Amino acid sequence: MLSMKIHFFAINIFLSATLSALIPQATFTPPKGWEVLSPSNTPEGITLLARSKPKALFASTINLAMEETSLSLEEYLEEVAKIHCGPSKHLSPLGLMQTSAGTMHIFQIDEKMAWADLRILQAILVKDSVAYVVTATTEESEFASVITPLLDSIKSFSILEGTKK
To answer: What whole-number distance in Å separates Cα of residue 141 and Cα of residue 129?
Structure first.
């Protein structure tokens, strides 16, 4: 268990080093049994990515993205709403969730893809000119079986104070 925590922390430190010198490091605890991907397997802009064991063609994922922003929280949320509007997407605000880093705004996005119907939970916090976005994606049919661990992971979100690079 200790080696897993050390490995997880090392990956987070390595990924965070690629961010701007002014962005503090942040993290969350992935659901138990989920694989934390190595930095070489994460898309650009993602600082932490974990996935479940794949069921059929798709594995549920949860990730953390951070970006500097000059937008207020309200403006940032408006931009998110614009991104998730479309004929195959539906965004629903779910409310607020308290984390040690602050209050995150939670959204559910349902998106119809050619190969599956997806359900996405997105938690957003804008603090000190940095947008922190935790995004969990799963097939709609799997949502009920992963919602509790995903919400626990979002709730575990924290900003590691004093870690600006």
So the answer is: 36
Q: Is residue 112 part of a domain?
A: yes
Distance, CA of 99 to chain centre = 13
To which residue do tokens 């002014």 refer?
22
3-state secondary structure at position 105: strand
Identity of the amino acid at 125: L
Look at residue 165 and tell me if it is in a domain: no
Answer whether residue 81 shows pLDDT above 80: yes
**Comparing 13 with 100, which gets the higher pLDDT?**
100
pTM exceeds 0.90, yes or no: no
Residue 29 inside a domain? The answer is yes
In a domain, 7, yes or no: yes
Domain residues for the domain of 27 are 2-159
CA dist 11 to 27, 42, 64, 100, 150, Å?
11, 11, 13, 21, 20
Torsion of CA 98, 60, 45, 23, to 10 degrees: 20
